[in-house]
Amino acid sequence: MPGFKLASVGGTAKHRFPGGIKWAFPPGQVWLVLRKIPRDTLWVIGLGMVGAVVGILLWSEGGFVNPATAWEIITNVLITLVGEYPDKPKTILGQVFQLLLLLFGTFIFGALVGKFSSFFVTQALLQEKNMQVFNDHIIICNWNEKAPAVIHQLLQGNQKQPRDIVVISASEIPQKNEFISQTHVYFIQADPTHHATLQKFFAPQAKAIILLADEDTQGPDEKNALIALAIKHLEQIPHSQRNIHVVAELVNLDRYRHLQEAGVDEVVSARDYSSGIIAQSALFKNMSVVYQQLLTYTEDTNEFYFIEPGHYPVSWQGLSFGELSQQVSRLSQPEQPLMLVGIRRGDGAILLNPKRSQFQYLAPDDTLIIMAFQPIATLG
Fold first, then answer.
1. Which of the residues 44, 141, 234, 286 has an alpha carbon 20 to 30 A from that of 275?
2. Taking the CA atoms of the chain, what radius of gyration do you get in angstroms?
3. CB under 8 Å to 351, separation ≥6 — which residues?
């Protein structure tokens, strides 16, 4: 390069510039020296330089004499620091320092943006790192006014054996602070219609997935159908659960079949149930209280429990419903009375207090439906 020579003096490289000027620090070493300086010190030096430039601009432009001019200069400095170029100062010295401030401000603004971005990225990575591996959990997709009550019921029903509850919603959940003390409740802001989101939070390993109606969208049933299709797609992945149990809330009764065809196992319509409860309550006083107690998990109310095959004596197979009722009653305790209310057949059909023509005897794949005060999973 013309006019530039690299000389070696005593083993140390020196850069020789035109005019005999020597620089004993190669450019790479200058960067290494700067990296050794603490960041807080660099910020203090940078702010000091900015303060010095502002002082020089105030002095050169007469800001110390005229308050209006001082305010205009400070405003121009702030505009310059964010990368914009305001009105030029009147003096040559002011224009030079404003140009330096523009260059220096670009670095400062970039560093601040990088700092904020780094903070949020770090927080996101920490949350992802702390996210545990879920198994046999319950996933709730979407959020509406019924969601808090659903979570409370799930927590109440799993007090003895707490089960993780993962809530996935595309929108922010303002009521999540209500469950801040619940260590088994997790809130995720993500799109539940995406396969990757469901797979990331172990949907194939879930005990059940609840699809609440997203009332903020124009088609809540259509959105739930998309989520159900995504869930059923996960069942096709090798080594994944083949029958992910999906329960969906229905808004429009005309979409009932759509949800079923999308793969929803149980479609629940609040309007459908409420109309029946209203009619029966009109015919039989306090009937609504009966349904409310059956649908509420508390220590003072009865709930229904399924006793799967293998969790009741094999000798009960072949018994009639009346004989089964006697066997169940013998296992009752003063504070835990038990009542057989129905049978779930192997094909999923539900028989409540069945007639003899409906149910002859207990088959090996039949499930008992028991009413009890406390959770029960095994009989005998």
1. 141
2. 36
3. 342, 343, 344, 345, 358, 359
With beta carbons less than 8 A apart as the criterion, state whether 26 and 15 touch. Answer: yes
Number of domains in the chain: 4
Same-domain check for residues 200 and 262? yes
Task: Tell me, yes or no, whether 199 and 245 share the same domain.
Answer: yes
Question: The domain containing residue 233 runs over which residues?
Answer: 138-272
Are 161 and 259 in a shared domain? Answer: yes
What tokens were used for 17?
A: 């510039």
Q: What angle is formed at CA 204 by the lines to CA 200 and CA 209, rounded to 5 degrees?
A: 95
**Cα→Cα distances 179→121, 147, 151, 175, 210, Å:** 25, 12, 9, 8, 18
Whether residues 267 and 153 share a domain: the answer is yes
- b/e map 156-182, b = 16+ CB within 10 Å: ebbeeeeebbbbbbbeebeebeebeee
pLDDT digits (tens), the chain, 380 positions: 444 444 444 444 444 444 444 544 455 554 455 555 565 666 677 667 777 777 777 776 666 667 766 777 677 766 666 656 666 666 777 677 677 766 666 666 666 676 667 666 655 544 544 557 888 999 999 999 999 999 998 888 887 788 999 999 998 888 888 898 888 999 998 999 998 899 889 899 999 999 999 988 889 999 999 999 999 888 887 776 668 899 999 998 888 899 999 999 999 987 777 788 888 888 898 888 888 888 787 778 888 999 999 999 999 999 999 999 999 999 999 999 999 999 999 998 999 999 999 999 999 999 999 999 988 889 98
The first and second tokens of residue 80, run together, are: 């310059």
